[in-house]
Automatic annotation (TrEMBL), chain A:
PANTHER family: D-ALLOSE-BINDING PERIPLASMIC PROTEIN-RELATED (PTHR46847), GALACTOFURANOSE-BINDING PROTEIN YTFQ (PTHR46847:SF3). Belongs to the bacterial solute-binding protein 2 family. Pfam families: Peripla_BP_4. This is ABC transporter substrate-binding protein. Keywords: Signal. It is found in: Cell envelope. The keyword Signal applies. Residues 40-297 form the Periplasmic binding protein domain.
TrEMBL record, chain B:
It comes from the Bacteria. It comes from Protaetiibacter mangrovi. The chain crosses the membrane at residues 42-65, 72-90, 102-128, 135-156, 168-189, 219-238, 258-286, 293-317. It is found in: Cell membrane. It is a multi-pass membrane protein. This is ABC transporter permease.
Amino acid sequence: MKKILAGVALAGAVALAMTGCASDGGSGGGGGGDDLITVGFAQTGSESGWRSANTESLKTALSEENGFKLVFNAADNKQEAQIAAVRSFINQGVDAIVIAPITVDGWDDVLTEAKDAGIPVILEDRTVSASDDLYASWVGLDFEKEGETAGTWVKDNFDGQAQNLVVLEGTTGSSAALDRATGFDKAIEGTDINVLDSQTGDFTRDGGKKVMEGFLQKYGNQINILFAHNDDMGLGALDAITAAGLVPGQDIKIVTIDAVHDGMQALADGKFNYIVECNPLLGEKVADLVKKVVAGDSVEKREIVPDQSFDQDQAKEALPTRPY
Amino acid sequence: MKKILRHRMFWPVIALLALIVLNTIARPSFISITVQNGQLYGALIDILRNSAPLMLVSLGMMIVIATRGIDLSVGAIMAVSGAVALTIIADSPSPDDLGTVLVAILVGVLVSLLLGIWNGFLVAVVGVQPIIATLVLMLAGRGVALLITGGFITTINSAPYKFMAQGYVIGLPFAFFVSIAAIVIVALIERRTALGVLTEAVGINPEASRLAGVRARGIIWGAYAASGVLAGFAGILYTSNIMAADANAAGLYIELYAILAVVLGGTSLAGGKFTVAGTVVGVFTIETLRSTILFLGVPSAVAPLFLAIVVVIVVLVQSQRLRGAVAKLAQALRPKKPEVAR
């Protein structure tokens, strides 16, 4: 019964929103229903636990109770599908567009189209190489800083011990992979840590596992440290390390970025050694910015959400109260 | 000697051996196999284990291609079967129970069978072009898988399920035995009964075989159903390997690799004659090629280009026409004193 009532209420709200659209600019009259801000959100896909938490956060923040009507699209990590989704948002005449760009390049045309149509664009999570006057604002995390934090931990713990390190990179060409690599390399520069190899595992468990198996076959037990650009690849690598007869967290020290639930669990269990958080709960900040740009207020071009980092003991403490 | 050279399996096998030699030269540890905790361990063993999902999918693809069809939906079917199986295990109170796991696998594969039957229905009964008919599921299937997992990556802890892809029997990976079983079953059904010949007949000339009394519709329908079931098992192996249902990444692009494996093995995309042994070699070639990228340390940015170049070379080496042209060219360039030389 409750469900039916909710359905009726929802239908009513949608109907109100539609009349609101049709009579565009007319005095709405009714409750809050016709003041909904229509937002198109082009998500990358759902390639990792981090992404799922990020999607949930945005869906919650851009809900109808908060005064939004969300048009959601997940692009399965295909850039052309994502650009097509943004085009369709422009054609639908949404009030604002939120994009989590899959890759850095190739956004100039479609962002110009949005600008010409007078629709403000807010970038979330990853960045683009396009000129910054084509979008209103970017909300995200400092990937370079995350890489640097991970690198500093490696430097502080292993400099001077001639340790060998391998890297599982994220998707080739994504800003997360590029910036994390840059930050990490900067931090370990000048140390005697030897980077044996670096290959992409596409941010997936399967990719991380297969590449780690290859590394282990190639270098045997020379590998001392693994740096994975996200938790999922690190989790995939765990099985490969165990299968090679080594103990993850001891024989091979593992440092990753993200701090999703499964990753934190592995850290608490002593299989990972250090995680730099990449906070996926960007929804509120995005919702706040959307409201401001639609109202015509000026906003900052870059909004950085601060990150934490965890070692094994901190993970045990933090795990029970983590929201994701 | 000539007989060996002319055998249609000769060049595919040479391509595979060349890759193994290349890897071994780059790093001799490639070929070494050691015993670890009573299990064989080495790069070649990894190839045997990791090739299992592609092996199953390629065998199904081969049967479909033999009927002059193509099945683009295999990757999506993998995602669905994995999502179904893992959701059942995740929701059950006893994920470590063998019964639960068997039910989950059975349901996952049954759903895949239904999807295969749907493909077959569109192609054999409705008469939709195979590429379009299976494209429908290729695009929609992944969405269904995402719907089942709720957009999240479902992870489970279940020892019997883990055994599927990560367990060992008499030192060898269990997944490899699954591959062998699939190869033997397909080879027996297609080669020890008339079914293989009938499949080839349908692929070579559907009209003539219909007039000759071959029930083409049933054979084509069955091919897609078989492809669905094999893809379903591949999905189980994939999820068992990482113990997570990743609806986006499971079996992504595997349809293309499967087509490649079938073609590398010497089966023509035009339908008709097919070779089980060739497909098996093709699958191992592709899987070895993937390790080659790691072993040679090809930077990730250029890895796809490297893969493409090697595939082109392998295909060219197998091309009879090209080999003929090279032989002629060599003959033309040879100094003209053959009588004296002999």
